[in-house]
Amino acid sequence: MSKTRTIQAALIGAGKRGRNAYGTYALQRPHELRFVAVAEPDAEKRELFANQHGIPPERQYASWEELLAEPQLCEALLICTMDREHYGPAMRAMDKGYHILLEKPMSHDALETLHLAEKAQQSGRILTVCHTMRYNPFSNELKRLLDAKIIGDLVSAQWAEHVFYEHYVSAFVRGNWRNAGKSSPMILQKSCHDMDMLQWLIGADCAAVSSFGKLTYFREENAPEGSTLRCTDGCAVERTCPFSAIRNYYHTKQGGWYNAVSLKPTLEARMKAIQEGPYGRCVFRCDNDVVDHQTVNLLFENDVTVSFTMTGFASEGTRTFKFMGTQGEIRGHSKKNEIEVNYFNGKQEKIYPPVADGAHGGGDFLIMRDFLTQVLTGDVKGRSDASVSARSHMIAFAAEHSRVTGQTVYLKDFVQSIRSEAIV
Questions:
Q1: Quick one: 302 and 346 in the same domain?
Q2: GFO/IDH/MocA-like oxidoreductase domain: from which residue to which, for each copy (predicted)?
Q3: Taking the complete model, does pTM exceed 0.90, yes or no?
């Protein structure tokens, strides 16, 4: 990153994403980024982040409202709150003059999403959305190949998001994103990345969407005989259950899912969290309602068709794809960092893009680098700015509407109806 000074920033939401993905960047590159304030309702998380970054007590806030009631504290603001707490602070922060890096999804609500994009354009503020996959080397190599038309004109694609089963049960059965009424639908919360990638890679807006999906397995009627409300309540099948909280959060190795359960890495802290907190509940007896599998069919305005699948029943977390063109096909596997090109003339090649440091194929660090460059240069049109991200979010909202109603959704009509209903 070409730089001339250190950017000062504030963080709203000091959970895992705020602390680990973006806070770590500042700790490793203090000459580029320094956090000077934090807002977080959980005192333990707030104090942990403040101690890591040397933030004084007078710049530690219990809510985003308190932080944004102050005169503008710095140039940049990172919003890493829960889904339903993105819109309020983002809108107020733009009025205050902040440039913003906003965690996805932009909002749980379609109209709020459109309003955020419009506000960013009107205010002239940077509003970059954390679609980190756009930034990693693997995705950019795939984009280069498709744009170069090495397989001719693109005709159709298959794309799958394989959510590692431990990730699924931790985040979407027991965890913060288990209930759409408290967070957002699965297709928006988890797979807005995929809708964004498809829009970007295909290079056209989506015209129509149909979708099917259900919460099929993680329901009380599927609980094994002898199971209990909690894994620590004497469950008869706990020792053999792949979803056991004791197995996944207590005995897990350093760096595993236990750090979502307890900030303290001790065994005592983990067990207390399992016995008392949401992560110790039986996966068949939670208040979860988001789907555990979903398919989406998409038609883009350039006539490209796509079949997308999300499943929470995967032995590894990865994305796989096949892009089919008039002269060949491109296959890929993100975890293997492998792209395979098969030409119809018989030629074959395998490509292994450079590997960048950091999570999401290096995307977490690379989006920070790009965002800081935007702040330094005043460039409001980033790779995943609000106007671009809002369009791909609409695909996810349309897919959920189709899943619930059973209707094919036409995007232009859908967006118009959202605006019209707001006026009424």
A1: yes
A2: 141-331
A3: yes
